[in-house]
């Protein structure tokens, strides 16, 4: 990870591919579909972007309404992005950032610099920044695979098992409250209903410090730890801190699309996904700690016969 101010992220990769091909991949809607998005469309010419063009981009349970704000083919393009991210409980959260691509020919390689700016100086802004930085890191690796090897590995890149949480690196605001030093654990902002960690008894405010024996001092380390269980049926021991006390629990990781976000919106519309997630989130009893039976859930989802 390239050190940056807290309002931005920078990723750099070198691609052994023609400059024009790299430009098409990152600057056009059709190019985006070749390595990144599940669905993409533009209000402008398909392969000739210009300032003011609007893109609709989908990444499973995340939508991005994007506007071209700079376009200098084939070296610079920038977008004003509005991301709508659907949580596992059906709520939609909106984030706004700017994304800029710079392409430079360096011998047989194209140096691609991707800079995202405008993250809010809040804990949730930090969460979005850390998630997006790691997401772009995987996506640029897939772009390299597509351009150099002809292999589209986006599903494999993002099909690592999940815990069902929203988390960020422990920051200065959280540290004195949770009794964990800054950048020595992952603070759980949310634990989603019926998620692996929810079933294991963990809760928001806990700090994960180790997964399967692997330390998780920051968000990238957390993602690397759970990614190491790719393709495995895993129940790692998770070490965490609650109220200053070190605890351990065994967690069965999940590949459910509720937590991976890998949804084909052409098969399952997002509104249908949202309703399903909202229903699952309402399965808690009045105490908020128990779950209704399958029969109760089915009756709740049926129309009123009266």
UniProtKB/TrEMBL annotation:
PROSITE patterns the UniProt entry points to: PDZ (PS50106)
Recorded coiled-coil stretches: none
Pfam families: AHSA1, PDZ_6
InterPro entries: ASHA1/2-like_C, PDZ, PDZ_6, PDZ_sf, START-like_dom_sf
CDD domains linked: SRPBCC_CalC_Aha1-like
Top-level taxon of the source organism: Bacteria
Stretches the record annotates as Disordered: 282-306
Domain PDZ: 152-243
Ranges of biased composition (kind: Basic and acidic residues): 292-306
Family recorded in the similarity comment: Belongs to the AHA1 family.
Full protein name: PDZ domain-containing protein
Biological source species: Paenibacillus elgii
